[in-house]
Amino acid sequence: MPITTCIFDAYGTLFDVAAAARQAAGDPSFAAIKDDWPALAEHWRAKQLQYTWLRAITGSHTDFWEVTQNGLDWALEKTGHSHDPALRERLLALYWELQAYPEVPEMLHTLKNAGMNTAILSNGSPEMLDGAVQSAGIADVLDDSLSVQSVGIFKPDVRVYDLVGQRFGCAKEEVLFVSSNGWDAAGATGYGFTTAWVNRAGEPVDRLPWTPHTTLTNLTGIPALAGV
Length: 228
Fold this sequence. Notes:
Blueprint: E1 5-8, H1 19-25, H2 37-58, H3 64-78, H4 85-95, H5 104-113, E2 117-122, H6 126-136, E3 144-147, H7 158-168, E4 175-179, H8 182-191, E5 194-198, E6 214-216, H9 222-225
Helix pairs in contact: 1-2, 1-4, 2-3
């Protein structure tokens, strides 16, 4: 069955989650993180994800913005910067306008010009996703931004992946699901989607019951995978 619908995770896949810390580090006002911003960004992202999993399995759902703030607070304390409320405020503000990876606009335009359905499927709240999409200037090449907020649980719960078929009326076999998170791509594989893992950092494959169908280093190969 041919691919008709291309679905993308947002953070780390379309949008560079390290951009907020990197941009703040370039500001003389926040010179304290000029050397350790990569560690700050890594800890922030790791805790952000861990908290989504823990909240999912314990039934204590909240919106992704709270999880994002919780993860940052842990990371700031871990790296010795929790004493700087101005830094915290700046990092959170930058998270609403994360930079898209360079290949994203052209890749999405190629898919839309070929008649594909395109959408985001993300843990992010609708407001956060709208901010990122508008900041990146890609609203015109996305049909929708689907948020877990509508089902009240984070990925990789199957109710999240169900949102794709509900929105587009497509079979699982018609969907190409793309994520930079190996566990997300694996979960989507188990669900029945055709999957691509964007492994920008060259990470090992997660030891899970399923593995992504394809592994890429960036998004330039997505149109070809979709048959465009």
